Amino acid sequence: MSETTSTNEEKKKPPLNGRRAIPSNNSNEEENEVPEIEAFGLIPRGFNPKDYLRVVDVHMFKEPHEINKQQHHTDKYYNPKLIVRRGQIFQIQIDFNRPYRPETDQFWLEYLIGRYPQQNKGTYIPILVGNVLKPGEWGAKITHKENNFVRLSIMSSATCIIGKFRLYVAVWTPFGILRTQRNSATDTYILFNPWCQQDAVYMDDEKEREEYVLNDVGIVFHGNINDIKLRSWSYGQFEEDILDACLFLMDKAELELSGRGNPIKICRVASAVINSRDDNGVIAGSWDNTYTYGVAPSAWTGSVDILLEYYSSKQPVQYGQCWVFAGVFNTFLRCLGIPARLITNYSSAHDNNANLQLDFFLDDEGKLDTKLTKDSVWNYHCWNEAWMTRPDLPVGFGGWQVVDGTPQETSDGMYRCGPASVQAIKHGHVCFQFDAPFVYAEVNSDIVFSRRQKNGIQVIEKIDTTHVGQLIVTKEVGGDGMMEITEEYKFQEGSEEERLALETAVMYGVKKQSTQDVYQPQTDVDMDFQVQKAVLGSDFKVTITFRNRSRNYYTATAYLSGNIVFYTGVAKNEFKKHSFSAKLEPSSSSAFDVVIKASEYLSDLLDQASFHFFVTAQINETGKILAMQKATVLEIPALRIKTQGELVAGKVMSVTVEFTNPLKQTLENVTLRLEGPGVLRTMKKEFRQIPANSTLIWEVKTIPRQPGSRKLIASLDSNALRHVYGELNIQVQKP
Question: What region holds the Transglutaminase-like domain (predicted)?
Fold first, then answer.
């Protein structure tokens, strides 16, 4: 394609380098200028373009109720332009200035993307009008001809670039090519197509496609293994400007346009750009409980505010933790048409030296040495799975792939993770790209307790092989329940297959130290402990039980350490120390209660009301140590949401949010948020204070846009109390 360049255009051109004939084409935003008349040579004096076939108008059938958006499952996008999925037919109509005569007239379509369109890169696509459409290949065919207009069916390639294309109609004349003017109303977004068998993201189950592509709300499972909590998250992938914001992320990551048809590449660059480390990406993480300059991670109710703020400011949004990174990543993937789901791994290992073993060091009295212990077990960690084929791996490793936008470790020099095949992780084939060993360690590490004796020698006291990755879950298809997917990631604990998978992983370079020979535990005494369920602000107790299965009489010196922890398992401080001695009669059990008072923990509490208890006991007669650790989370009261009056699309409705302060202190600087995709954009209200035991009521009016079953999600945030949520399912009627 020739290009008319003015001196002004010359100035704007980026400098060329010796490696490329043209600069890299990695922005969907930028455009080139396309000539309206492209002459073949000298134009004769009498030439008048109006004598030839001329395009008067182009109809895109782009309204939500019209054929294109209906057939392509894009009618929910709040966007006035045409949005279609690749590898599937869509319709347009061209009005000419006179009837079209196929014998003499010749016209074609041109789709362009980016600043330097080239045919071999898939960024300049000329489409001639033919008689047949081949599935999954670019083509156009006239389906109807009447008066001055023609109706076309257009097929896009099933491997086509994802993004916003510009459309031109070109007409051939003996003296040159006449083109339509640049018209942004005919811009066409092309997305991934899980409904198309030739697409790399094809999914064959309609219910799964509805859940993993079209559902705009989801559930985040959090808490811990003994006390699973859930909250809703608004993905909002169809809300206004979100599609443009998601395309902007690929520009920000400088992904070449020619690579944007490949879900593997898109996931890999997106996992880096979702976090702000090393590339000024979307969300800045903060795990230190001080969120002075931004929003606390627990206060967000969905992805829309975050993406829109980033799209307008181009600066990282403060702050996120794992479920926020995963929630926004899920929005990005579903918005572009890649099936995706949010995963929670309970007791997730963050193994700093990737040796499949988390080292917990005890001092000579059996207390945890926090200076030496660098590894941590997260109460839970959220990541995403994206569905795609993996032509870069051997057969059998397609399907769900782990991608993780939370910045934990670097991969090829950047904070990113994935895509890693879930199937490869299960079978220990961690040699297959990308980042499989790290994910394998997150779900399979052993916890090793070792104690430094007075002479400086490290002795292994206990190995816990079952604590990490006990439970991996996601939201069920078509409902709000929990679906366990642990078996997708690992074989049954202790099975022959599990041992084989581990040996395979070790063979492929996952480091594992051998510890068996040095370690002889006390086998005839069992120790366990239970933490009573408690509401935030109340006292509760921890019960430690010993079972002496031997005929010997033992005495034990026991120590309980209570720590307030971040959900990442990193301790903030020890708020409870309690030592006691226990007499263990032969063949009997004994129980000991330790009371935890609210006054002991309230002043230091972190935003997820999360505790970690360590109990260690030394059997005095043998010198052996029993060690056990558990995390627990307090119950946090919920927000109540109610609606008044009838709920009809296009009519005003009223929503109230109520909350009663459960603490014995006044809550200060309280922020409430409320949102619901298709019902209301996020609303915020600040309250100076809520006195102890008093109730706050906030009423808002809104006009729901979309009929059908919808969800309202609310959160409350204050310095003394976080992770307060409420939700309500509503049914919006058609007008």
Answer: 314-407
